[in-house]
Each structure stands twice: as structure tokens, then as C-alpha cells.
């Protein structure tokens, strides 16, 4: 190693203009100007404008008047609601922007039908399940959403459900209207002095916590990214997931629906809760296993549930909705007049900004990257995201990820290695597994800053040929606990390191242990006493569970001492298989990681 250069990342976005291009198409009657505004290696502001006609914006679902008026100041606006997929495809070739809510599917066919003219899709709301992001990116179309305007409305609805559930308001109302007067049947519970667990302490969760504190409740929260000082400022204690659900009288759900949170409340988690717990969900329906919730209600584990969201909406023939101890509303979290106007203005501003070429912080897909840059960095881009995903999964519950250091080993000088895309992918790997955020080249640094995540980059300048852009990438997370102690370096940080071999990302170091395993499928890490037969024992157990092993590598400190075995698997082992691995006497700890 010849030298080392280290610098902290400024969390504002400053990529090189030489490695960013926005491919866009205008109608034949328009002219295009794309102009980077000054500065070597500074983030350019691309100005995209049509000479002649105004751009056309198609509003395909009802949008607040204030938002429509804002759009009309800049563009020709076509408000056409309830379009069939065929009608939308027929119209879209005449439009530069499209605004939808959740009811319109913006499919690959829509982008193909646009003939390249569609430059931006605006989703008036948070979720973008109805937009084909891959197709949008392939067609050079930016997708933006409006994630902040409905925060207060959703929090207020959460509190409304909380109080209505506690005092049986919906059931008592229906009873009185049916001509009954059952005061003794609908005796409720008080909120004062009760413990509320807020699951995910983001914008909505923190607002619910503030209001619950005002009602005299003791509030705890679980969120691995929430800043502890922000929680303390409003009197909230951050705890692990298990502690939150096991000690709460009331649980309020605010997490996004991701693979990690899908059915996170299930038979197993319900069994850990206090008998008589009450649950509020104004987040996403899929975070609850609805059949398991019915069983928990019938068993008395869950006394009541108040639900605004469901796995399938509207729910049909739902035992959960019909349960006497369930209060249900039809996804009204953002349904206030004020929130609807706020969302309309927020998405209109984002769409106008995008049409002007501004790179919005609410963008959920990336502009096109030049082919030559992507081709060179492609295997390292995959490595960067996978190292981020591995590192964050090693963090123990309750630990907040705040400080990350990334080291790039390269023979190239700092000016010849643009790590912006790599940093974005590491950020994506760190945040997306437990978040609804879509992290990309545009919003990576903004998203990290919003979550209090500081990422520092360090380049280790190596002797050798600069033909390859990188030799290795190392990711370290400091000031956290690890669920796999062997992943800690000598200085106490979680550390993973990887290289690209024959175009395939490989994990080459965990903590202080050298390993070599392909980052395909998923990985089991085992710390063990180094002794004969360990590979065979673990391999046999996996074979009995019909789990295919793709790679296996063992790194050790010395013969007959301690070793770390890294096993690449194509299939997810069952809990029973993992339990059997952990019961091998020589295995001191192990962890299963999804890549």
C-alpha cells in the first residue's frame, strides 16, 4: 500500500457531470436544451425545456385544486379520470408527464406506448406499487412521489383509531343505532399510564408518539435507524423489537411493507405479546398475517385491533373485518381535506421541477448512467449493495446505525475513481431492507441524511495497474452491537469486505476472519472450534433439509483454534435446520443472512 486518502462524505449530492446523462425525448415540434451549470466535478443542474408549446401533463386521478392550478401555470393540463388501460396507452404518447394516485397502473405498456415522450411520472402519495420502476428507468422516465404531505393526517387517524378502540366507540355506536343500550358490554380501558409501542419511528410514528404522550401514555419505539436523541427529546425510549412487542399494552404499526416486514406480526410474534394487547395499523396491510391475527383475537392474546389497511383492498369475505373485536376503516389515513391539498401541491411541485430538469429529492428511480461507466463498475455496483445488505443484517436489534465507513482499495487516484454510484448502492443496501425508501443515484445522500446516517469514504491507494477500477470494498458500521460477534473487528466495528472475482461479487472478510464465498443466494456464517469434520456435519444437516450449498469457505486464526465458516446456500433453510446447526457442540454462534 502506497498511501491512504480519507475524507468524510458531504451528504449533499455532488456527482461528476461526466458520469451522468439524462436521456429524454421530446416531440418532433420541440427543441431540447440540456445544460450543466458550471463547476468541475460538481452536480450539474440540467435544464430541459421545450421551445414552442408548453409541456402536457396528464392527471389521471382526482388531484386537489391547488395542485392542478400550480401545474396550469407551467403546462397544459389534461384531467382525464377513470381511464381504461387501453385509453391511457392511447393518450400517453401526447404527454410529457403523468400524475396518478394508487388506482392507475403505470405498466411497461404505458411507457412503451409513450414513444419516448413521457419524461416524468408523479405518484400523488407514498407507495409506488402501481408504477413499473424498471420500465420507467429503461425508458429514461423519472418517477417522483409525495411522501411528506399526509404525515399529520395519518398520525391523527392512528390516534383516532387508538382512542375509538379503547372505548369501543364503533361497536357501541352500531349497538345504539340498532336500538340497544348495552352500557355494561362496552366498558373500555383507559390510556393513561399504559405503554404504547410505536413500531417504526419515522415521520408518522414520531407524530403518533407525540400525541400519545399528550394522552398520558408511556411510549417506547422500535426503529434501528431512529436517532436516539430525537426520541429522547419527546420522551420516547428506543428498544429492541422483542422488547417492544412483549412489554406493550398497545402497539401502533408504522413500518413500510418490505420483504423484511411482510407478515412481521404472525403466530410467533403474537405469542410473545402481553395477553390482552391492542393493535393499531395505519401503515400497510401486509405487515400483519391476517389469519394469525384472527387466531390471536379468538384466543384472547389480542383483545382488540383497529385497522385502516389490509392485505387485499377492499377486503372481501374477511373474517378479520367481521370480527366483533375489530374496528375497520377503508384506508382513510391520508383522507383529510388538508392532506389531499398538501399532496396535490407536493406532487405538482415535484413534477414541474422534474420537467425543468431538477433532480428531485423525492425521485424513486435514477437517471440513466453512461454505458461505459456502468459497464466498468457493474460488478462492483452489485458487490457494494450486497455488502451493505450483509452489514446491516449483522446489526443487533435496538442498535441504531449512524456511522458507516467505506474503504475502496484501488490503484487509481481519487480523481480517476468516481465512487458516487458505489456509495449510493451501499446506502441502498443499508437502508432498503428495513425501509420503504427507494434509494438510487439521485436520492442516496439525501435519504442517508434524513435518517441521520453518516457515511465516510476512504480510499486506500494500492500499488499496481489502474486497469481495474477497484481491488476491494470494505464496509464498517461503528457504535453498534452485532448479532454475530465474530463480525466485529479488533476495534469493535462490524466489518465486511468483498472483491470481484471473474465478474462475480465475493465476500472475502468478516471481522478479522478471511473467507471466500460467492455473494449469490444467501449466506450462513458459523463461528466454531476448528476441528476435523465440521464441514461435513454442517453440510450433512443442510443436505437433509434439501438446501443446496453453492460455496463453502473457512477462515481461521490458527489451527485447532477458532474459525469462521461461510456457507453460500441457494435455498432458505427452515428454522429446524438452522436450530440443528446451532446445536452442534463445536458451533459457538451462527447467523443466516439474506443477500
Automatic annotation (TrEMBL):
One of its GO terms (biological process) is L-serine biosynthetic process. One of its GO terms (molecular function) is NAD binding. The keyword Cell wall biogenesis/degradation does not apply. It catalyses: (2R)-3-phosphoglycerate + NAD(+) = 3-phosphooxypyruvate + NADH + H(+). It is found in: Plastid, Chloroplast. Belongs to the D-isomer specific 2-hydroxyacid dehydrogenase family. This is D-3-phosphoglycerate dehydrogenase. The lineage of its organism: Eukaryota, Viridiplantae, Streptophyta, Embryophyta, Tracheophyta.
